[in-house]
Amino acid sequence: MSSKNDYTTAVYASMYTLQLTLDEGLASKVVFLKLIAVCDNSILKAIGEHALCLKYLDLSGSWNVDEIGLQNLLFKNDMCLDTNSTSNDKLCQQLSQLYDNKSLLNHCCFTLEELRIQDTNTEVAGLLMILACVKSLKALGGFLYFRNIGDALVSIWKNSPKPRVFQLTELFDMQLSDSKIAIFKECMPHLNKLYTRLSCVYKPQDFTDLKQDSMFWGRVKILTIDLDYMSNEHFLKFLNSFGNNLSELIILDQETGIDVDKLLTICPNLLVLKGSLDIYNMPVDQFTKLKSIELRNSTIDAIDWIFENCPCLEEARLLNNPRDLNWNSQIFQKPSWYMCNNLKRLEFSLNNSSAITEYLSITSFIDKCLKLQHLGRIDGWCNPLLNLKVRNYVKIMNYDLNLY
């Protein structure tokens, strides 16, 4: 077993106390439990034996947790499973016999909705046990470096009696393919969140496949997609058939900013948007539902348009731009009506040691933004003296505003 957690004697003593407390009754009542970097196999055994209503369990960073600990969590004492000398397919076949078997599975297999095992000492067998036996599982909370989650789901599905349905609402699969989509549209009826790569799902030769797979893509409401620096036109063409369904879109590894007008036409119902934007053709409509935006390396025109044409915008984060040193003072001097009446959080990260911002511009902006509760990364565009003066002003005015 790896020993990345270098615990002190006091930490080990606290973990033992927690184990005893769980054994003595706490486990039967707990619903939400975070044990980041402080869990071990003994604690999991106590949880597995006594948990009755546990829905969320976070073990991430706990390198004293391995397959034995997961067996302690999921299986009753008389259940023994060999995970070392058994192939993945054979293990999946064995696990399929346990699904829904209350005489062999602990109660948490029927209550857990999210189980996080990132950066633990678990391997493929542990993931297969979780996916195969936690009947109520909706989320794993992110990627696992040792196994592509989509591939693990396919292994379980292929080695299980049909029909086999998973309750998962999210899928992290950076190797998504047509064959896997054909399986997922049958076995993941509750899917609404997908994290994948454009290079896996883009088919320039035939876009009728997207229509045939509409049962899968039509379920996706939250999409995080790595463009792999492919053309924006490829991405927009891919998005065209189901973008109307999206409420959240996070775009990574872009070569250039995406045209706001085209994105608005394809995805008019977005509530959350993160990515790099540009203006090529001036849009005639608005993002009428957008509440949160994170703009990375976007042009000034795109940023200005967003603040003037998103009537419901409450949160905005601006990263790495603009190149125009005067822009951040302009936004304070002439905030849009929507900013003044709706904005609750504004954060800049300009990486700009020469930012030009005046005290009166900032304080006037704060006065005008009636709902502003958070103004962030001010060290990046305020020198220390100006920073202190603004903080004193907020204190004197007794504003409910967090500066960070």
Structure summary:
With 404 residues, the chain is an alpha/beta fold. 36% of the residues lie in helices and 14% in strands. This is Leucine-rich repeat domain, L domain-like.
Q: State the shape.
A: globular
**Going across the major beta sheet, what is the strand order?**
4-5-6-7-9-11-12-13-14-15
Mean pLDDT, to the nearest integer, reads: 91
**Helix content, binned percent:** 25-40%
Low-confidence stretches: none
Q: Could you tell me the number of beta strands?
A: 15
What structural category do the secondary elements indicate? alpha/beta
Q: Provide the gyration radius in Å.
A: 25 Å
What is the terminal-to-terminal distance? 41 Å
Contiguous helical run count: 17
Largest sheet: 10 strands, parallel
Q: How much β-strand is present in the residues?
A: 5-15%
List keywords for this structure.
404 residues; alpha/beta; ten-stranded parallel beta sheet; 14% strand; Leucine-rich repeat domain, L domain-like
Can you put this structure into words, describing what you see?
With 404 residues, the chain is an alpha/beta fold. Among the domains are: 1-136, no CATH class; 283-404. The chain is built from 17 helices and 15 strands. The strands form 3 sheets. Strands 4-5-6-7-9-11-12-13-14-15 form a 10-stranded parallel beta sheet. The two termini are 41 Å apart. The model has no long low-confidence stretch (mean pLDDT 91).
